[in-house]
Amino acid sequence: MNYSTIKKTAVAASLVAALGYADVAQAQTPTVFGGRSQYRTWSIGLQGGITTPNVLVGGSNNFGKKVGYFQNKVGEYYGLTVRKQFSHLFGLELEGNRGSIKTYNHELASPRQETSNGAIAAKTDVNWAASLNGVFQLGTIDFLRRENAVNFYAKVGLGVLANNPIQYANEDFTGTPVYDNSGKWGEEIFGDRSAVGDRDYKLAAYVPVGVGVKFKLSEVVALNLGYTMNFTDDNLLYGPGRSDVKGKFSNVYGGLEFTLGSRDKENLTFANPVATLYDELKDPSLRNEVEALKQRVSTLEGTVDQLGKDSDGDGVSDKFDKCPNTPAGTVVDGSGCPIKFPEPAKNEIATGAYYAPIGFEFDSSVLKTESYATLDKLAKELRDSNGTVTLDGYASAEGTEEYNMNLSKDRANAVKQYLVNAGVAASSINANGYGEANPIASNATEEGRVQNRRVEIKK
């Protein structure tokens, strides 16, 4: 294609891309009728129809001396479409076609008008035509129906047409052609008609502009009827003639379009946002259903709150707490009852208060939240009395002795650090680690090992 063709192609492509991008960008913003994920947006179509060398907007082609002399003759045209719907208003469609375009002298005037080579009929074989079209839906909003069954649309695009015109001296398109450049076409033909190539067809840019209507036959299938005018950048669309007018043709088609995806989702092509707006804002039955759902959620939330309520803060919910109102800091079992530990005489501070050992999770020196109240009480007493305390850390028998010795020291230091952060002088705290020594319960059971993972508080 020559420079002019390339320039026009680029301009048209930019226009189509700009229109498509603007609508797609708008479609990416969530709207009241929901996002694209709730719809089926891909479809494929099969179509077939006829072509004529004239278009509704008028004008002439270059084949013939006067406009009225050379008349239409029907040619076949068929193809395939693949479309992505971006919103209820706009989609992008890839279209491919092939077929033929025919014209001949109908002898409306006398004498018959012929070209310089005696041709009175031309048949242009369209080897293939491919275009990218923007499809604008015109009838998706219907204030009278909840669901669209009929949808009008318009489309405009940009494509490439591979074609070879053949001219005949009779209107039956038979006999030896008076013009057939098959096997001699090349891109340079646009710039120099005397140049010789080796292709069976030439390439031309074209702009399809059309309208149509779709009838919804089922949730998957729609009947598609349309009319398209095709404006090319090729003055040899029908072969050499008496002018340099750019060739044009139109096609009328019918076909079936199949929507892809789950049938549980609505087809975006026929979606009516007005109906969804009504559902969300006006439909009393839907509002009642939503209110009922809200009430059920509120009831469930109340039930969850009740199940999670822990009045005494011992970590066991009231529903399962067999020993309610246990004092803060009390170590309890799974039923919420205090765990009884041996009470060594030396485990008393000057005031006579007893402090249960601080428990830890397996292989951890991180303080449990339930131990904070006990340590806060201990810290206050030490600050008030300026007393001293000894912290003896222990571990259960899992792991090596060396590892457990270090773990027991870390546990004692974790308690010491908490007391220091609470205002107790570090010099009044002695932290020791004894590893697996001095177990207070059997290491053969998990219940016993839980008791052995501890820090004892001694005066």
Can you characterise this structure?
It is a single chain. With 459 residues, the chain is of the alpha+beta class. It folds into two domains: 3-29 and 37-281, Porin; 341-458, 2-Layer Sandwich (60s Ribosomal Protein L30, Chain: A). Helix content is 22%, strand content 31%. The strands form three sheets. It has an eight-stranded antiparallel β-barrel. The protein has a four-stranded mixed β-sheet with strand order 13-16-14-15. A hairpin with a 4-residue loop joins strand 9 (202-216) and strand 10. The radius of gyration is 44 Å and the shape is elongated. The termini are far apart. Residues 1-33, 64-70, 108-112, 188-194 and 343-352 have low confidence and may be disordered.
What Rg do the Cα atoms give?
Answer: 44 Å
**How many strands appear in the DSSP assignment?**
16
Q: Helical stretch count?
A: 6
Helical content, roughly?
10-25%
| SS-based class | alpha+beta
Assess the beta-strand content as a share of residues.
Answer: 25-35%
- The span between the termini is 99 Å
In the residues, how many domains can be counted?
A: 2
CATH class of the largest domain, please?
A: Mainly Beta
Major beta-sheet overview: 8 strands, antiparallel, barrel
As residue ranges, the low-confidence spans are 1-33, 64-70, 108-112, 188-194, 343-352
